[in-house]
Amino acid sequence: MRINRQIRVSPVRLIGPEGEQIGILPTNEALGRARDLNLDLVEVAPNSRPPVCRILDYGKFKYELSKKDKAAKKKQHAFQLKEMRYRPKIDNHDFDFKTRHVREFLKSGSKVRVFVMFRGREMAYTEHGRRILDRVAEELADISSVEMVPKLDGRHMTMVLAPTSEVLKKQKRSSKEAPKMEQTTQQSELAPTETD
């Protein structure tokens, strides 16, 4: 984005500080008008013929653009894909422990790739791995849905679980309430206490 003396093309289509069309003017005259108003001449559409320039406060303009970018990034939900590995001969305690972690990942709004890894002769008994993945899906059915059904890929049987929309809504609500809670605790810490 070119501003003021960086604009070399003449003439330009000029737009005033209030958004009104001024017309097609030589670049020097457009710069003079911007200088008279203590503002900048900014090229907003360089590819059009003639290029479109606007009279505005460039610092304020850049600040507003950065605010819009930050707001757009906040609205974007970037999910993480977490992974949890199970074995075909897993003990009940280990199964429960790992499944609890998968539940925490799902509650935090992440998708989880659950896979069973087979070694050596275990490849002959892939149905054991399928049973484990089915059991994981069944235990977490209250907060997740199966996004990718279990399938065998080499020595791994993989399944992807995604959090349900209710879980995502709760997670979003709690992330919005967290800053409010911090403000109230800070205010209560700053409040003077009565002494007897």
Provide structural commentary.
The structure is a single chain. The chain has 196 residues and is α/β, with parallel strands linked by helices. It has two domains: 4-58, Translation initiation factor 3 (IF-3), N-terminal domain (Ubiquitin-like (UB roll), Roll), CATH 3.10.20.80; 81-168, Translation initiation factor 3 (IF-3), C-terminal domain (Translation Initiation Factor IF3), CATH 3.30.110.10. Helix content is 43%, strand content 26%. It has five helices and eight strands. A hairpin with a 6-residue loop joins β3 (40-45) and β4 (52-56). The longest helix has 26 residues, at 165-190. The chain is elongated, with a radius of gyration of 30 Å.
Entry summary:
The chain has 196 residues and is α/β, with parallel strands linked by helices. It contains 5 helices and 8 strands.
The overall average pLDDT, rounded, is: 83
Helix content: 40-55%
Helix-strand sequence:
EEHEEHEHEHEEH
How many runs of DSSP E, i.e. beta strands? 8
Radius of gyration: 30 Å
Structural domain count: 2
What is the assigned CATH homologous superfamily of the largest domain?
Translation initiation factor 3 (IF-3), C-terminal domain
Question: What is the CATH architecture assignment of the largest domain?
Answer: 2-Layer Sandwich
What spatial order of strands do you see in the largest sheet?
A: 2-1-4-3
Query: What is the CATH T-level topology of the largest domain?
Result: Translation Initiation Factor IF3
Structural class: alpha/beta
**CATH class (first level) name of the largest domain:** Alpha Beta
